[in-house]
Specification:
The protein has about 450 residues and is of the alpha/beta class. About 15% of the residues lie in helices and about 30% in strands.
Length: about 450
C-alpha cells in the first residue's frame, strides 16, 4: 500500500500518460504492526521520539543491523525496527479518459498490479467503481432525478464488470447478451442513506453477488428518516443477500436481524462492526481505510474512505462537507474540519471525489489544499440538492484554480451527448453521457 502524494512522490497525471517519477525510498508500518515506535537509538529500550500510524510513511535514510534510520515529514529522525516497516511503492501513472459508451471500456482484463477507477454519470447522484485483478469495489449508486432508473448503473456495470444475473437483469438501451452466471462485487459501500447515493443499489444486489456491504447502519435519508423508500429497499436487499458480510458503524443486532419498518428481518449472512481507522485489504498492495464514519459528529454526513492502489491514492467523501453554505475561502467546518484536524496526512491523496456534488456547503479551499489532489471527480446533475445548488459556480471556479484535472459528469446535462449514445437508456434522464475512466498504471 502506498501513500504516494502524502509521502512526496511525484505522481504524473496526463490524458495520454507519461512516466511517473519516484523520489527517495519510503516506508510505512506493516499492515499488522499497528502503531510503530520511532526510537532515539537502534536499541529496543531507547527513548521513543515519535509514533507512526498505519497511514503514515517516512523516508528511509540508512539501515544498520536490522534497524532503519528514518526521517519523518516534520523533520524528526530516529530508528525503527526494520521488520516493522514495509517499502512504499513508486508513484503510479494516472491516465484519464471519457467513457462515452461501452466501446470506451477497455476490453482486456485489468493487468495484475494495475487498477481502474470509473466515475459513472448518474445524473444528480454518485457512483464510483474501483477494479483490480482480484477485486471490485462499488462506492454509492443512486440518482435523485425522477427520470433516471436503477438500470443506468446496471448498464455501466454490465459494460465494466460484465453481464450478470440472467434475462431479468439485462438493462435497456444497449445490446447485451444475458448471462446466466452471477458475477461478484467484493465490496459495496453506501456512504449514507440519501436517495442520490442509494436508489440503484437494490437492483445491483439483485443481479450481482455482493460479498461485503458497508453502511453507517443508522438509517436516515431522503428527508424521511430510516424508512425512506430507497434505504428500505437497500436494507431488504442486504437482508436477502446470501452469505453477505454486513459491516456497520452502529452496533450489530445481537440476533443478526435488521429492523425494516415494523418488521424484524433475519440477515442471511454475518454482521460485523467497523471502526474509524479500520483497514480492509483488497489485494497484496491495495486496500482502503475508513477515515470518518459520518455518524458521531453533530453534523452527520458520510462514510469517508481513503483507497490505496499501489502507487496511487484516492479519497471518497460522499456528501462530506463543511456543514453549511458558504464561500470556498471560508474556513472548513463539519466533516472537512474533522478530516483536516484528525487525518491531515491520510487525506493527502492523488484523486479527490468532490464532496456533496460540488455544492457551496463544502469543498473549502483550505481543505483542498491539504488534500492536494491531481485529479478531481465531480459528480453532479441538473437538479439541486435539498439545501444547495450543485455544483456551485464558485466552487468550480476555485477547483479550476488548483491546476488539478477536473472531471465533471454534468457537462451534457442540458443537451444531447453530441455524437454518441448514452450508456443505458437514451430517454430516461440526463445520465449516461459523461462517465470517466482513470487507469492506474503501477511501475
Amino acid at each position: 500500500m502506498s501513500l504516494s502524494r502524502s509521502v512526496g512522490a511525484a505522481t504524473t497525471v496526463a490524458v495520454l500518460g507519461v512516466s511517473a517519477l519516484a523520489v527517495a525510498e519510503r516506508a510505512r508500518p506493516q499492515r499488522d504492526a499497528g502503531v510503530v515506535d520511532v526510537r532515539s537509538k537502534a536499541q529496543q529500550r531507547s527513548k521513543v521520539v515519535a509514533r507512526l500510524e498505519q497511514n503514515e510513511s517516512v523516508e528511509v535514510v540508512r539501515e544498520r543491523k536490522g534497524w532503519k534510520y528514518v526521517r519523518l515529514d516534520n523533520g524528526l529522525t530516529g530508528w525503527v525496527k526494520g521488520e516493522k516497516l514495509a517499502e512504499v511503492a513508486p508513484a503510479a501513472t494516472l491516465r484519464t479518459s471519457r467513457v462515452a459508451g461501452s466501446k470506451d471500456v477497455p476490453p482486456r482484463p485489468v493487468a495484475y498490479g494495475d487498477y481502474r477507477i470509473y466515475m459513472f454519470d448518474m445524473g444528480t447522484g454518485l457512483s464510483v467503481l474501483v477494479q483490480g485483478t482480484e477485486f471490485t469495489l462499488l462506492y454509492d449508486g443512486g440518482s435523485i432525478d425522477g427520470k433516471e432508473v436503477p438500470d443506468r448503473l446496471l448498464a455501466y456495470l454490465f459494460a465494466t464488470v460484465g453481464p450478470s444475473g440472467g434475462d431479468g437483469c439485462v438493462p435497456g438501451g444497449d445490446d447485451w447478451n444475458a448471462e446466466p452466471s452471477t458475477l461478484r462485487i467484493d465490496h459495496l459501500i453506501l456512504s449514507h442513506a440519501a436517495r442520490e447515493h442509494a436508489s440503484a443499489l437494490p437492483r445491483v444486489m439483485e443481479c450481482y453477488s455482493v460479498a461485503n456491504v458497508w453502511d453507517q447502519g443508522v438509517g436516515s435519508g431522503d428527508g424521511e428518516g430510516a424508512e425512506s423508500k430507497s434505504y428500505t429497499a437497500f436494507l431488504e436487499a442486504v437482508a436477502a443477500e446470501q452469505g453477505v458480510s454486513y459491516h456497520t458503524y452502529a452496533a450489530p443486532d445481537a440476533n443478526a436481524r435488521l429492523t425494516i419498518g415494523s418488521r424484524q428481518v433475519p440477515l442471511q449472512g454475518s454482521w460485523v462492526r467497523f471502526s474509524e481507522g479500520g483497514f480492509a485489504v483488497l489485494d497484496d498492495v491495495a486496500g482502503f481505510t475508513v477515515l470518518d464514519s459520518g455518524v458521531e459528529a453533530q453534523d452527520p454526513s458520510s462514510i469517508v474512505i481513503r483507497v490505496d492502489l499501489g502507487g496511487a491514492s484516492m479519497l471518497l467523501t460522499g456528501d462530506a462537507d463543511s456543514g453549511r453554505s458558504g464561500r470556498p475561502d471560508d474556513p472548513p467546518d463539519g466533516a472537512e474540519k474533522r478530516l483536516v484536524a484528525q487525518h491531515s496526512r491520510a487525506i493527502d491523496v492523488d484523486i479527490l471525489q468532490v464532496g456533496h456534488h460540488g455544492s457551496d456547503t463544502g469543498t473549502r479551499t483550505a481543505f483542498v489544499d491539504v488534500v492536494s489532489p491531481s485529479i478531481l471527480l465531480l459528480s453532479a446533475g441538473p437538479y439541486d440538492m435539498t439545501s444547495a445548488r450543485a455544483p456551485s459556480e464558485e466552487v468550480v471556479d476555485a477547483l479550476a484554480k488548483t491546476g488539478a484535472t477536473l472531471l465533471r459528469t454534468d457537462v451534457h446535462d442540458s443537451g444531447p451527448c453530441d455524437d454518441w449514445d448514452h450508456v443505458g437508456d437514451d430517454v430516461r434522464g440526463p445520465g449516461g453521457c459523461d462517465a470517466y475512466l482513470i487507469e492506474v498504471d503501477n511501475p
